[in-house]
Structure to design on (260 residues):
């Protein structure tokens, strides 16, 4: 067990699976007390059990990030269980794809409600708690779709671009409270959900489009969340860091430059 985050208290939302679970495990492995928050309580409990079995400290909390009273209860639970909050990773989110002309308004509303409103509610509640205890770090989750116009992602991109803008403003407004706010924009990450949903053709397209020619691992995103929450990032504020194998850095990609 590492000691880098010893005596630090961290909430990870959406910690029941995928990137959130890997992030919770990593913080715990570095010595943090972690609250694994998820709308799916059983999955959060399973991750906590794994962390405890590895010698770490974690407690599960059932929360719907869209509901302010539930989020306030999550903050109060964290305080009573482990003490003042040092960092929150606002990882919980949803994605879906539809051609723009077929995108129902309900999809846009649902996406904004979870990704933007949910992140806003959690960040605000966490920031109030951190401001009362000397500061902290907030890490939000955007996406490569927050930067680029990938097909079928009007609703998702609206939410994930919104998070980039909101992160900048939070960073500016919260700096006086010694709270840093940054975001992560993952590329394609190999999580149970994408393993189930991505058909072979889509996987091949991704592998061609990403300069590193592979999906990322959840642990590779967790490492960046850990860095952003750490003192090593003490002068990093208001940024959205792509963790995408170079996908958003790339332009035209052809295998043989002679065909250009
Ligand atoms: N996996 C990728 O390839 C990828 C790419 C770009 C961005 N992202 C972003 O990274 C984050 C994590 O992605 P993932 O693929 O691990 O997600 P996932 O869909 O595998 O898991 C999301 C978790 O959030 C929880 N959740 C959903 N709605 C919630 C709510 N209202 N309240 C509380 N918890 C809720 C779910 O129960 C689940 O455990 C998301 O914000 C996603 O948009 C992921």
């Amino acid at each position: 067990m590492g000691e880098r985050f010893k005596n630090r208290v961290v909430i990870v939302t959406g910690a029941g699976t995928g990137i959130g679970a890997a992030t919770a495990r990593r913080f715990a492995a570095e010595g943090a007390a972690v609250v694994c928050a998820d709308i799916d309580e059983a999955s959060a409990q399973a991750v906590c059990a794994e962390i405890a079995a590895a010698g770490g400290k974690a407690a599960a909390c059932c929360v719907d990030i869209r509901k302010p009273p539930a989020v306030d209860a999550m903050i109060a639970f964290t305080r009573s269980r482990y003490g003042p909050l040092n960092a929150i990773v606002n990882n919980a989110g949803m994605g879906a794809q539809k051609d723009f002309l077929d995108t129902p308004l309900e999809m846009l509303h649902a996406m904004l409600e979870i990704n933007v409103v949910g992140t806003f509610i959690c960040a605000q509640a966490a920031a109030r708690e951190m401001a009362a205890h000397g500061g902290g770090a907030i890490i939000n989750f955007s996406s490569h779709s927050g930067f680029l116009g990938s097909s079928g992602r009007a609703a998702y991109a609206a939410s994930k671009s919104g998070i980039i803008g909101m992160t900048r403003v939070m960073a500016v407004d919260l700096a006086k409270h010694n709270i840093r706010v940054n975001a992560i924009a993952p590329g394609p990450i190999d999580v149970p959900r994408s393993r189930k949903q991505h058909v072979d053709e889509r996987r091949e397209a991704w592998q061609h489009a990403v300069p590193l020619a592979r999906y990322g691992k959840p642990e590779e995103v967790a490492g960046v969340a850990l860095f952003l929450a750490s003192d090593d990032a003490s002068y990093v504020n208001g940024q959205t860091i792509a963790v995408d194998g170079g996908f958003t850095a790339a332009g035209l990609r052809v295998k043989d430059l002679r065909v250009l």
